[in-house]
């Protein structure tokens, strides 16, 4: 009998956690709100990287994504996750999910692994394609210059800088708050960020192959620091400040549409 209240408490806590995130079916698009999709890497039969002590990447990425989602929601941002539980999603399914919902920003969250156990740190990837002119252009084809309050105007070279700015703000803020070894913002040829029409970033939050970093990645406190970095960085990238009124400058007239 004594066990009953504890079981009940656990059920209530689990129910509350589940309730915090709206499923894609229930999601109602608000054209005045910034909209971010978080994509926790791996899941189900695909564990991703595994630390020497058995910490699985799929669990770390989901836990961090849920913390980022909570923070962004508190800032008034609409958030969807590609997965909210331990299930397998192919890269194509993730990509289709992001394409269908057309967020203002998507962040794929991963943890890294290296054959060299001393390697550690946080790195961010965006997809750049080499143009004939020699310019590096972000994968963002339909970046809407008026949608965010910051910066006010974006065109030509500035548009490319805007893509870098997204990565830069999010990366820098996360390094600042976690104190992680800075491995920089890089160009990555990853499927999720390559075949995507919205600004997309992939972050490698740390190395599970490094014993100390893997222990940190499994820690609630460190995950909160990473989450704050990613959420605050996203706000800085979109609005120029963390405590912004997260109402976008120009509502998106194209959304919602029939394909949603
Ligand atoms: Zn991964």
- Gross geometry: globular
Task: Tell me the radius of gyration.
Answer: 18 Å
Tell me the major beta sheet: 6 strands, mixed
With strands numbered from the N-terminus, the spatial order across the biggest sheet is 2-1-3-8-4-7
Write down how many β-strands occur, each being a DSSP E stretch of 2 or more residues: 8
CATH class: Alpha Beta
Instruction: State the end-to-end CA separation.
Output: 49 Å
Secondary structure class reads alpha/beta
The number of distinct structural domains comes to 1
**Which cofactor or ligand species appear?**
zinc ion
* CATH architecture tag: 3-Layer(aba) Sandwich
pLDDT averaged over residues: 80
Percent helix, as a range, is 25-40%
Strand content: 15-25%
CATH level-four homologous superfamily name: Zn-dependent exopeptidases
Sequence of secondary-structure elements: HEHEHEEEEHEHEHH
The CATH topology turns out to be: Aminopeptidase
Number of helices: 7
Low-confidence stretches: 10-19, 131-143, 150-155
What is this entry, summarized?
This protein has a single domain, classed as Aminopeptidase, CATH 3.40.630.40. The chain has seven helices and eight strands; from the N terminus they run αβαβαββββαβαβαα. The chain has helices at 3-19, 57-74, 91-101, 157-178, 191-194, 211-218, 220-239; strands at 35-40, 78-81, 105-112, 122-126, 128-130, 136-138, 182-187, 200-207.
Protein described:
- The chain has 260 residues and is α/β, with parallel strands linked by helices.
- The chain has one domain (32-239): Aminopeptidase (3-Layer(aba) Sandwich).
- Helix content is 38%, strand content 17%.
- It is built from 7 helices and 8 strands, in the order H-E-H-E-H-E-E-E-E-H-E-H-E-H-H.
- The chain has helices at 3-19, 57-74, 91-101, 157-178, 191-194, 211-218, 220-239; strands spanning 35-40, 78-81, 105-112, 122-126, 128-130, 136-138, 182-187, 200-207.
- Strands 2-1-3-8-4-7 form a 6-stranded mixed β-sheet, sandwiched between helices. A two-stranded antiparallel sheet has the order 5-6.
- Helix 2 (57-74) crosses helix 7 (220-239) and helix 4 (157-178) packs antiparallel against helix 7.
- The protein is globular.
- The protein starts with a helix and ends in a 21-residue tail after the last helix.
- The chain binds zinc ion.
- Zinc ion (ZN) binds next to loops.
